[in-house]
Write the structure tokens for this entry.
Amino acid sequence: MTVKLSSPSLCGVKTISFLAKLIIAGSMFAPIAFSQQEQYSVHPDSKKQAGVPRGKVTQAKFADSTVYPGTDRDYWIYVPAQYEPGQTASLMVFQDGKAYVNGSTFNALDNLIHRRDIPVMIGVFVNPGVVPPQNENAQTRFNRSLEYDDMSDRYSQFLIDELLPHIERTHGVQFSIDPNLRGITGASSGAICAFNVAWHRPDSFHRIYSTIGTYVGLRGGDEIPTLIRKTEPKPLRVFLQDGENDLNIYGGDWWIANQMMQRALKFSGYELKHEWGDGGHSRKHGNAIFPDAMRWLWHSDAAEVKTHYDQCRNEAVRFLESGENWQLLSDGHGWAEGLAAMPDGTVFFTDVPASKIYRIGTDDKVELFAENTGRANGLRLGPDGLLYGAANGAKQIAAWDPKTAKRSVVAEGVKCNDLVVRHDGTVYFTNPADNKIMMIRKGSGRAVVVDNFSNPNGLTLSADQTMLFVGHFPGRFIYSYTINDNGTLANKQEYYYMHVPSNSLEGHLDGMCVSRDGWLVAATELGVQICDQPGRVHLILPKPRLAKRVSYTAFGGKDWKTLYIATGNRVYKRRTKLTGAQPWRAPIKPPRPRL
């Protein structure tokens, strides 16, 4: 009797006898290496075939990285016979390149290109970097885990901005810049590396072949399935392979981790195929099905990789309009901040170093509203119809008439960053220079300290205006206070748990707003994070490509369903299904959340 766990659609798997599996399962003394027992027949497409033109393989070295200083590495380039110099070609990048430099891989590429199962494609096979030892008694620094297991965008910068341009310049080839014509692959840590490149740079890569992927807790990879579920879907096409006897060690369980990846990708509507076997931590199964995986990744029906909201179950479907993306409204600012909307949906924002305020009409026309603002930062509309601003350069809380731009002073001699105004006219503002949260009662003109708070930044009110939310700028928590009848604060808690980048301990929690039904929408280093009332992140919207960090958020537009964000020198907008709360109006009690 035999058991075959591989999909019948993929050929080349030699089965393991049921008796052998019983013997393995019954062993009580020494573990048996499944990777040594795995046997797979060579796929027909991995064999040399008559009449098929052969590609050319060139080996070289790269030692000029600024992303990974001091490293050198070998790489190989496969150029198919069909490639014509001066033309662009599709691209496939292989991590742990030397492991793929063999007749089987090149035969498969030759055969698949010849039969037009995949486009004319250049292969780049790149090894991880090493920092050579300083002398014969010193240890080499091996960069493989740093480069491959790292969850940040560092390796994608190296590959896309350093290595690939170097190869084009040096070897007289030209890669397509269309992400639909770019794929990337790897095994083990090389697989998570491949996934992360496409995850961080979907503008460069859309196709991923992952075998025995290390989606475990070595350098934060165990968080990827969660981020896939919480992040706005990206146009990626993913083939996953793993075996049930893969590693189960200190960093995690590879077999379970790959299944979690599959379930997360399916949950969020990605273009996905998986092939499970019974092997161990070995390239054998992944190599055996390589031609079929490539054929599926590149078949003509998948000419353009897309997102599929009709198949998506993550919160993007609840909050976002399908097909809507970030739209650039204004560019070239020193540092844009302080988005605030009027009742008609008109939005104002500040350029802090330029001491200017701009107006965005409901027709998206941007015009200068005020100059010499005292480096105004945060802006909010008050119940009296005035536009309140934290003019830290002038050490004032100021107010502008939105029709005439006439300026008045609300409070003097205050250090301030961001502010919010309640429906009763109470102003709360942050003073990060002195680590304080301040309050100005309506008409008093005097600021009083309501709490000591290290590095406060953005703040906003709950929809019912009974709570104040304050971001700890360098941390990962947004704090919640209850507001007493006299306006003072109580019951401070580290309430909203925000996601932070893997290569930083700082969340850069900044300007925020809330929807009428109680969702908190916060600017963070990772992008815009949308949280429920109990303090949990439901959705992450990555910042627009080439944008700086998101520094402010606000709802506006005619129906208050448009989300505006500031990202350093730019301001963007996009349509949502949420409706913004208006703090200057009567409080709104949101519906009870799921706990």
Q: What stands out?
A: The two ends are 50 Å apart (CA to CA). The first strand starts at residue 2 and ends at 3. The domain at 319-575 is CATH 2.120.10.30 (Neuraminidase). Residues 154-171 form the longest helix (18 residues).
